[in-house]
């Protein structure tokens, strides 16, 4: 039998008052206890730190006052309750999606940076690439497994040397974001064929032979064997020899 304990009404009231004081915007002439002032300062610095750590490219596009305004608005408007760094980062993403003053390019950049962060903290094991010791002539003897940290994203801009480039307006650019076996973050520009084949693999094991059938429907003269070897070496996927 499970016993449920209810928090005393006074405690609930005190917590609500504390949260309201912590989240409230600072106004001219307002006074609060030294402890509350210090705690408000620490919380705001922590949230601003997460914003600049997880979304550095976006923060480069705005000034310090904008970062402070976003931090204040987040505390005042968004009911996040999880204090962990990664939870705050996700809550900031959800909050910024709702900000009408942000452009579609800003939101795409924010989504891209959050995905990079998600790949970075993903605790999935990435195996070292298996050396191709023989030509992939017998595709039925090989299974294909996608990198477990792989995220694919379509962006309305290119990423060049870690910076967004807005030269090709109106054109979507596809990227793979993933972690290699040595935990290094990596990104690779993808073609539409890359996206289709990687989507076909998904998160399951698929035989190279079955993937070859998929490739033949996408592009008749597409060299799947070369594609598999290249992406095995780049660690977007792993090749597993049967037997």
UniProtKB/TrEMBL annotation:
Q: Which domain of life is it from?
A: Bacteria
Q: In this protein, which residues make up the domain named Putative DNA-binding?
A: 14-96
Keywords attached to this Swiss-Prot or TrEMBL record, sorted alphabetically, are: DNA-binding
Q: What is this protein called?
A: DNA-binding domain-containing protein
Q: Which InterPro entries match?
A: DUF2063 (IPR018640), DUF2063_N_sf (IPR044922)
One Pfam family cited in the UniProt record for this chain: DUF2063
* Organism per entry: Citrobacter enshiensis
Keyword DNA-binding annotated = yes
Record flagged with keyword DNA-binding: yes
Single GO MF descriptor: DNA binding
